[in-house]
Amino acid sequence: MRKRADDLLNRLSLDERIAMLHQFAPAVERLGIGAFRTGQEALHGVAWMGPATVFPQAVGLGATWNPELLRRIGEAVSTEVRAMRSRDPRVGLNVWAPTVNLLRDPRWGRNEEGYAEDPALTASLAAAYTRGLRGDHPVYWRTAPVLKHWLAHNNETDRDTTSSSVPPRVLHEYDFAAFRGPVEAGAVAGVMPAYNLVNGRPNHVSPYLREDLRRWTERQLVVCSDAGAPSNLADSERYFDTHEEATAAALRAGVDSFTDHDQDSSVITARVRGALERGLIDVADIDTAVRRLLTMRFALGEFDPELDPYAGTGPESFDTPAHRQLAREAAEQAVVLLKNDGLLPLGAAAGDRDGAAPGGGTGPGSGGATAVPGDTAAGAGGAAADRVAVVGPLADVCKLDWYSGSFLRRSTLREALVERLGAGRVVYADGDDRVRLRCASGGWVSVPETAEVSTAADEGSLNPAHAEGRTDLPPVTAGGDPAELALTDWGGGVLTLRAPDGRCLSVAADGFLRASADRPGGWVVQETFALEPAPGSGGAEQALRHLGTGRYVTVTAEGLRAAAEDASGAERFAVEVTERGEDAVARAAAGAGTVIVAAGNDPFVNGRETEDRDTVALPGQQDRLWRAAHAANPRTVLVVSSSYPYAVGDAHAALPAVLWTAHGGQAAGTALTRVLFGDVSPAGRLPQTWYASDADLPDLLDYDIIGSRRTYLYFDGTPLYPFGHGLSYSRFGYEDLVVERDGEELTASLTVTNTGAVPADEVVQLYARAVEPRVPRPHRQLVAHERRRLEPGVPERFAFTVPLAALGHWDVAHGRHTTDPGRYELQAGASSADIRLTAALTVDGPPPQPRPVLGSGLEAACFDSSAGAVLVDRSRVRGDAVAPADGTVPARLVYRDCDFGGAGTGTGAGRITLHAAREEPGTAVVELALADGTPLGEAEVECTGSRYSYRLVSVTPADAPRGVQELHVTLRGPVRLARLDFGPGGEPREPSPAAGGS
Question: What's the burial of 950, exposed, middle or buried (CB within 10 Å: 0-12/13-18/19+)?
Fold first, then answer.
């Protein structure tokens, strides 16, 4: 195919080649080449192109811990891509999925898109999903998956201008690992760089694309830019002076397809031509990118329709019974039982007409001990005991997110309960406050009566961010007939308001409020508001601010309109509460035998793409709901359906049962109901740590997980729920862990027995731990896992093959991966905090060698530890340097085991040469000392004219350091330190290419 791609490339004119660099590549009719688009969203189903099978969110798929399930889902999704393309050629075969960014911080707005906080679990699931997306033909690909988002991208706050400071160990052991696994597995067609910068350099000009990513595979990977990111290089980031320079740099770094200016390719192609005319690129750079794109298109069978085994996929392969069953299975496997004191499964005690599977639940920390389902609620007799109350804002909704397709079918929790128990046995309350708004200018907020609102068929959009609100409905008015609105408080003062017919108040392009939306949604959400004290009212009246536009609501003759720039010009509203949501919930709870509180988030509100969360706390209104339900009925279950973890410590302490699931797609309600009633024993496991409070989390922008003690790998506190946690309706015994070594591989095997009464899945997790590490290492790190269904009483043997290298780490002293000699443990358990068996092993070998600084120098970025420092770009092309994070606060760097030579000979490092730069006027100081405080000297660094202009500055210690010592470096004032050289004469050395020199 590469030869054929070269042949086709040679037939293209230069203009035709340049045109192929844009996301929307035009047809070349003279050669019979059709138009081609990179980028079909397919994170958990085909997205943006209308109705399709909707699977659980990616973080929910991560909770299944089941690679084989994800492979099957990938196969279903890619089959639907082909089926949808058969009737709509806009559907693309280059799919942008999965997202492999690690869930380092649960406040990340796009937490729902990732699989896990652990690189091994993420890589395993991503490799499986891409295998399904690719297909199993040896030559042709069903779809071409692109991994998102390269690299170290976990914040939406200022995401296009913030830089993730990633030390070498974190880069190699954590962020690279999530991408490397699926790339090496062979089913990845490319990657998408992220909006952010890493170590001061935008990801779209990252040297890691060439120096690392492309070395992991022989395949011609395609790098597709994120939307608008090429323009950011010269606009918001101001990394380059001109767009021609930016485009040239991205192309030379390895970007092949430019997603910019939507379908208008003229801007990018003009920039490429301009770069070519200025000599910033040559034709070979263009050819390299086009060759990669053509190779991918050949693999997709575009030029061999008669040979492509997937070319005949048609509408009959869309929304099949098998896909529906798979969506339900995935939703069931994603449910995580966080706590159970015996209330679950509900079964006949909750009026189940069909009965439930026998067996009890397991309580937190019980190690799988069986508990028997409880009796009916105290004081609840007769029919009330048979009823189930389902309450809360997530009780009767199925939520979509930005990367979902539209529902072909759906099942809410309330609907599934009614189907199971009958309408007479299900009590429902949404938990919203009911309010009326009285206008200070006269009248009440009123929603005009309209005929039934028709919803236009969702035919899909190549860019749904361009969708506009409806203007065909009458605006909300100020009149004499008050509308009772359902007010949902999603936390942080963010509200949605629903009209009596269930439609959300929304603002269209003309600014008027209408009851027109089925749900919050859109790139800019138009359905969220905030109530703020009106100026001068003493809190008695409120101004209503529309969050999408930032404007305040006014009253006009035509209706309510978001028009005022500030609160002084806003209408004043008196808020009359006709019923508190918690009162309705308490009433429903008191009239039922069991209460299910359905809490969680809306994926378009408070945490989404472009918006991080500022807290992990449950919204206050939802907190009040579970408390009200529990006060009225002790048999209360909290079901959290959310895109991310919450700190629900009080609920855990008070309630008998707590479950979590990500938004479960089209079968969410059915899956939850089957788990609640014991048809399915829950076996989902948490893919990330659930922290007890915001106080457990360091700064959102701190990407050094080792230094900040972040994720289960390094967190020193006690989480609310640990990584890998999840309970069952059965219990499991672990025994006979045996570890054997064969060369560079370890084999660990153990026996697991379902000692309970019901068939159930167990997820066996294998962790590795260095017993006495010489550098900070994880408390334990996942190296293998398997989810398997186990029948009661039947012991089964689990076996895992683990590379010896999995015990190792990145050696910053020598720039390579190493496994130190010493004692290690392999630990088998049911979670990262529930270790059942441990086996010890010893790795032999020569002791680690010190840093050979006297002969090789020292790359400043390769420190062992730091405080107050950030990594920055040594040049625009490659290499790292170190600088103070705040120029007014000293940065401190530690380099351990530095061999200065001269031990016992009287020589040593008689001169130390610094490679330093300072852009600002004035002088900075670099101080050098040994660990015991012995000063080696200091050097002043004056302005070098540019952050990339390095000057050699020498320090001559009064007493040359000798032997193996620990070096401490302090940077005072704005300065960039790239390298240190040591020698009797302090001969300067060029930065080492292996260490990232320019």
Answer: buried
